[in-house]
């Protein structure tokens, strides 16, 4: 993770670097730093914690200079203090880094034996130390950079500045993303085009194995042996305006309330509401001809894929193999060319998801990317891109991207059902009608349940452990509920398939462990109610999230019952996501945690 920027400018850069970092804070916020060269002297300001600490430091001790690099950190090696904050300086070499240098320990031991003195606990410092060593041996800056690149292994985006050359920045990519921006007499580097949007929309994306030397008006790109390579220019669509919270307290709250609107954007990309059919580009993936679908993603995106598995298998009779990407990439799953693969990622940059994509690509599969960031690496490496059109998601906990992923997956499953002849025309129309009701139903639910969720959250915030249960597509929703609650409120929560309760977790049930049961009145309702009986019989407290029919059918005592409207089974996951998200959000607000930037997390996970 981490966000990096660099400017070879013709006017002061420190303020602009910090502004660009603000657009990258979603990548990490453990510490931040900026370095510039002013009148031949390289200097830096760094601060632990969020960017405003760095801003305060810069206000007290400003940095001049028209060239600089900057970094916002998500700590991997070394605690998140000021010493470990980037940029790292060694003998006139400044380095910012996103990723992990895997062989740093061996290289550090080697350099220490040669007399090098390390001042940080980071893996990044090895980059500056190695370049410094080659310069001492007489290499020029560029040769030293290439020599360093041929010695480090791992995943990295690197930006390097040299005190003896105030007109040049160098960069390298092997794994995490890096974009070069072309301005007027100024050049920029950034982890993504969003960071560079206020400066330019003329972007070149570096690819793995690229090393770039950036001057005021040009970029020379080579491979790591120094051989020139050509990369195409692209016009970025990223907006120059930082999204704001509007009248909401947090981005997460705003994003929860945006869902009815963004879902309608997502749906209108896949659905012809007039003919009530799904519109799919068959050149991306021809679901009619596919024998099996491999699906992989991480975290919340994985859970949307898990819901998608139920849909593809039920409505399109298409077998789905799904796994979290960190396992999928190493499973060596046998795959054949008549299968296709779907990768789901809000950011489109998640390292494990990308590695899984590349594994499937090597096996000759057609690749579909379900992404929010259309210019992301996953989008660029997919044969077909299925945008979720959720708009920028700033809150670290994913909300609107999740329901938009679900809307896209539902559309794809219906389209696949039609192509495979497993859904009739009438069934397709019926399902499309249900999807088209979503924005209205979601908006009604958001208005209706808000006060109840706030008072329930006050109760929930008194507990230390919470269990979520669900069956069918409500099982991934139980996992999502637990994930959302733990990541932002820091309350320990687990999600279980309701039927698994008696195979272990039931031992935990007592009055101190609320059990949140997600159960619309669907095919599984009676069975889930039996599991609730098992909880009630052991003195467990139940929070029941159900619909009108479910509330009328169950007579069990509960701590609270949240009643949603009766909806078609297909759209229930999107509707039931709302109380799940609101409960986590309000609980976190009561607990006083940092809702939008919870501790230890980052929005884009570009390390394994
Ligand atoms: C949880 C959350 C994470 C992400 C995961 C994947 O609220 O946001 O679990 O879903 O890190 O990220 P993307 O979708 O960017 O690949």
From TrEMBL:
Entries under NCBIfam families matching the protein: glmS, PRK00331.1
Annotated function: Catalyzes the first step in hexosamine metabolism, converting fructose-6P into glucosamine-6P using glutamine as a nitrogen source. Involved in the production of the root hair deformation (HAD) factor specifically on medicago.
Stretches assigned to the Glutamine amidotransferase type-2 domain: 2-217
A single GO molecular function term of this UniProt record: glutamine-fructose-6-phosphate transaminase (isomerizing) activity
One example of a Gene Ontology biological process annotation: fructose 6-phosphate metabolic process
Domain SIS positions: 283-422, 456-598
Subcellular location, principal: cytoplasm
Entry's localization field: Cytoplasm
Protein known as: Glutamine--fructose-6-phosphate aminotransferase [isomerizing]
Enzyme class, broadest EC rank: transferase
Keywords, comma-separated and alphabetical: Aminotransferase, Cytoplasm, Glutamine amidotransferase, Repeat, Transferase
Transferase found in the keyword field: yes
HAMAP family attached to this UniProt entry: GlmS (MF_00164)
Active site: 2 (nucleophile), 603 (for fru-6p isomerization activity)
Listed EC numbers: 2.6.1.16
PANTHER family: GLUCOSAMINE--FRUCTOSE-6-PHOSPHATE AMINOTRANSFERASE, ISOMERIZING, GLUTAMINE--FRUCTOSE-6-PHOSPHATE TRANSAMINASE (ISOMERIZING)
Gene3D superfamilies: Glucose-6-phosphate isomerase like protein, domain 1 (3.40.50.10490), Glutamine Phosphoribosylpyrophosphate, subunit 1, domain 1 (3.60.20.10)
Catalytic function, reaction form: D-fructose 6-phosphate + L-glutamine = D-glucosamine 6-phosphate + L-glutamate
Keyword DNA-binding listed: no
Pfam name, any one: SIS
Quaternary state and interactors: Homodimer.
GO cellular component terms, semicolon-separated: cytosol
């Amino acid at each position: 993770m981490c966000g990096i920027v660099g400017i070879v400018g013709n006017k002061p850069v420190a303020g602009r670097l910090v502004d660009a970092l603000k657009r990258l804070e979603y990548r990490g916020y453990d510490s931040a730093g900026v370095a510039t060269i002013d009148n031949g002297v390289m200097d830096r300001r760094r601060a632990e914690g969020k960017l405003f600490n760095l801003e305060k430091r810069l206000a007290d001790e400003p940095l001049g200079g028209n060239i600089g690099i900057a970094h916002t950190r998500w700590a991997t090696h070394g605690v998140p203090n000021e010493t470990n904050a980037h940029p790292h300086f060694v003998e006139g070499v400044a380095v910012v880094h996103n990723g992990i240098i895997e062989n740093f320990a061996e290289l550090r031991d080697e350099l220490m034996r040669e007399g090098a003195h390390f001042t940080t606990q980071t893996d990044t410092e090895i980059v500056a130390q190695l370049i410094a060593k080659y310069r001492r041996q007489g290499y020029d800056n560029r040769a030293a950079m290439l020599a360093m690149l041929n010695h480090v292994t791992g995943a990295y985006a690197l930006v390097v500045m040299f005190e003896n050359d105030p007109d040049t920045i160098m960069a390298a990519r092997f794994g995490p993303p890096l974009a070069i921006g072309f301005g007027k007499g100024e050049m920029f580097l950034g982890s993504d085009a969003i960071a560079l949007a206020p400066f330019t929309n003329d972007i070149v994306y570096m690819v793995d194995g690229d090393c770039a030397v950036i001057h005021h008006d040009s970029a020379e790109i080579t491979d790591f042996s120094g051989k020139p390579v050509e990369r195409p220019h692209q016009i970025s669509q990223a907006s120059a305006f930082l999204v704001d919270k509007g009248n909401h307290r947090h981005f997460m709250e705003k994003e929860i309330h945006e869902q009815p609107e963004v879902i309608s954007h997502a749906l209108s990309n896949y659905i012809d509401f007039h003919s009530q059919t799904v519109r799919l580009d068959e050149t991306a993936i021809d679901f009619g001809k596919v024998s099996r679908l491999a699906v992989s993603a991480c975290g919340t995106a994985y859970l949307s894929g898990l819901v998608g598995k139920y849909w593809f298998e039920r409505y399109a009779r298409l077998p789905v193999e799904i796994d979290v990407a960190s396992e999928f990439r190493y499973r060596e799953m046998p795959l054949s060319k008549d299968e296709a693969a779907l990768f789901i990622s809000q950011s489109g940059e998640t390292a494990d998801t990308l590695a899984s994509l590349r594994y499937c690509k090597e096996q000759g599969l057609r690749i579909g990317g379900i992404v929010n960031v259309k210019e992301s690496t996953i989008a660029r490496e997919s044969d077909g891109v299925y945008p979720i059109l959720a708009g920028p998601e700033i809150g670290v906990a994913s909300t609107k991207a999740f329901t938009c992923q679900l809307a896209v997956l539902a559309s794809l499953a219906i389209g696949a059902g039609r192509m495979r002849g497993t859904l009739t025309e009438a069934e397709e129309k019926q399902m499309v009608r249900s999807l088209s009701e979503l924005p209205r139903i979601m908006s009604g639910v958001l208005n209706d349940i808000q006060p109840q969720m706030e008072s329930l959250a006050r109760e929930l915030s008194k507990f230390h452990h919470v269990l979520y249960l669900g069956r069918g597509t409500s099982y991934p929703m139980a996992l999502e509920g637990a994930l959302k609650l733990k990541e932002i409120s820091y309350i320990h929560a687990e999600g279980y398939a309701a039927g698994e309760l008696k195979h272990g977790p039931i031992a935990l049930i007592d009055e101190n462990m609320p059990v949140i049961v997600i159960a619309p009145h669907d095919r599984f309702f009676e069975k889930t109610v039996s599991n609730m009986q098992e909880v009630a019989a052991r003195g467990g407290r139940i929070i029941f999230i159900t619909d009108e029919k479910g509330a009328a059918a169950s007579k069990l005592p509960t701590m609270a019952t949240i009643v949603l409207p009766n909806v078609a089974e297909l759209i229930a996951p999107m509707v039931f996501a709302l109380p799940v998200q609101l409960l986590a959000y309000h609980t976190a607000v009561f607990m006083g945690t940092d809702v939008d930037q919870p501790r230890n997390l980052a929005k884009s996970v570009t390390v394994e």
